[in-house]
Amino acid sequence: MEDVFKQESVSELKGRVQRAKQVIVTAHRSPDGDAIGSSLALQHLLSCLNVSSQVVMPDGYPDFLTWLPGQDGVRFHDADPEGCDTALLGADVVFCLDYNAPSRAGGLGSAVATAASQADTFVVVIDHHQQPEDFADLLLSDPSTGSTAELIYRLVLAWGMADDIHADMASCLYCGLITDTGSFRFPSVTPRTHAMAAHLLGTGMDHSKVHSLIYDACRLDQIRLTSYALGQKLQVFPEYNSAIVSLSLEELERFNAQKGDTEGLVNRALSIEGIRFAVFVKEDVDRVKMSLRSTGTFSVRDVAATHFNGGGHHNAAGGACPGESLDSVVARLIGLLPTYASQLQNEG
Predict the structure, then answer these.
(1) Which pTM value belongs to this model?
(2) May I ask the CATH class of domain 220-345?
């Protein structure tokens, strides 16, 4: 696959942002470690060019990510929709990180789509999800890459700014790197991924501290919720090498669940011996959300896109079912398992 960062337009982008009066960096709704880590890393990079920028998120992210350098200046659309829309629509350059369609940006989506239609706003997508929509002026997409943080790192190299990576920028990049590669476990990890990690560690960034801040900051209620979910709500279907964990809104409230408390549940289900397909299903106020994971050749992206209004990667995807109940989504999911029996029962 051709390296998208070797395009002449990438070099031209550097000059464009240096001339810009207002640059906005956005990411997808319910931002994860890669989304916010990549966004803040890009902001640090732009600061090295003496370019002022603003990070605007659709909504909040988990508390275990609030240590990231620069996150104090992040604006949230759900808290100030009018102000955020005005800022975005008045920008010279808008970056869309870790998402490939305006609809993935939640409440920001409408403003992103409008900005993309404006002649005086240059919209850039930097993303690693499959099948991006055609809405940006510049698309820097590589689905073979394990994280958007890696793509931001490649942008740094393309702009000849490798020596400008400081410890704070490196911490943000490393956060995105480890969260979206499962701490280097996923098949998308390559020698280039580890070379990037080595470079980041060379800046003096404390990788052990970063890992601990992300993975070792569990609240007691979160531990109890995890115990309940795996002990009481885990359903295993050995005949289909599949497992499902589901939690209702009442159950989440019972354990005082906060953003991020259920992250990792789907991976715990997938870690069961013999399981190739795992799903975590969570009831929200107006929709039912899903996280899907798989191993080998079984594509959860296809399952999410075909049945659950979702998308993502081959082995990691998400979906959402507005207006549907938790029970109906789980029942529909279970009913689909026989459809995929041959794929799930074959090793891949």
Answers:
(1) 0.90
(2) alpha beta
